[in-house]
Amino acid sequence: MTAGWELTTPRKRLILIGLSTGVFLASIESTVVSVAMPAIVGELGERSAYIWPIALYMVASSVSGPIWGRLSDVIERKAVYIAGLLTFTTGMLLSGLAWDMRSLIAFRVLQGVGGGALLVLTFTVIGDLFRVEERGYVTSYTSTVWAFSSAAGPVLGGWLTENVGWRWIFLIGVAPGTAAALIALRAMPRLGGTGKEFDLRGAALFVLGTGSLMLLFESEVSRPELAAALAAIGGLAIASFVVLERSAKNPLLPLRSLRDRYVGTAMAVNFVAGFVFFGTISVMPAVLQWGLGLEPTPAGLVIVSGTLGWVAAANVASRLVVDHEVGALVRLGLSLIAGSMVGISAAAVQGVLALMVPSLLMLGFGMGMVVPPTLIATQTLSRREELGITTSMLAFMRVLGGSMGSQAMWFPMASSLGAHPSGPLTLSSALGSFGLGFAAIVPALLLLRGITYPDLRDYERTSLAHHGDH
What we know:
This protein is mainly α. It contains 20 helices and no strands. Helix 4 (about 50-75) packs antiparallel against helix 17.
């Protein structure tokens, strides 16, 4: 560990540039494709497959993250990161060369598998290379890169599609991806690697189970028999996974980590925060366009206020976490999210745009106060040999919560918008959707009430002394 921390500042900066390039590419590729899909369908055909290049990329990226994380614990972080980056870049190149819709879907899945490594291993490597007092500003920097690239994706995708063709939304990233791999190869030290056996059976069950359930949530399956099959496969695979992990010698997901009060709480809080934030963001276009009568572009700008709030608060919280108790910051964040649900409900019912923007900003502020503190605390308090899997599971729980929240928060307002496609939401539908978000926060706050996190700087110092500074 200290070998990473003792790298020179220029070398750390070079590594951070390479990591940020990977984050930028993975993040922008999750949003850039949607705006180009009409043009892609126009050339490749198969309009019925419109959603699959987007949905399957998201599922592959989310589900593969914990696999990459655990591989990096078992094999070695640098080698696994480069493998993920090259997988992503290869998928990006092949997507740009796709000859029909089926090939595009297959290559987007490959790209998504690689993308899962870039997001989770970036923050894992940061946990390896930077001490807790440095991790704050580094995390805020990479979070800003993520937010900027997510917001820029649709704009860049639209410009490239109109001016040089849709294939360049993929091909433009090949050179930066290759450069990032070369930077990692040259500058990144060898990190981690226990040499233990990888839990292949557990990984297969995890992918099958979570992949089936996320596909059910993300793709809006319309055939009841297919939805039932996905639910059954997902549930059976997850149940088998839990049974297997209890007896595995080196499990994919060490269950003792979830039983740790700090790590387990962080997982639960990220699930709830993802449920509310992404659930709210997913229903906002309908609320703003059908309920408040905004055009798509102004509606998009209003929604971006949530992301901007997240980035602003993340930059503050990432620095506060070193000198302030983590639980207090997270409780503040969850309280802000709960308050935003009240404001959004009132704005939706009354049709008041002036109240909607500050409410979405509050929602983003809440996420910014939850995500970086729980990430930095989890990395500091986790076992070094489990850093990859705990970091990746934290992100996975947030995404899983978002997938479920997108569906759950849509149902209460679907009937209202169907019956009254224009005008403010009814009180019952607003309370049903955003009241559900408010209700989800309550158990998370209760869970945190009895928990006081240790001082992270002191904990890291004590841990180093206990383990002989390695």
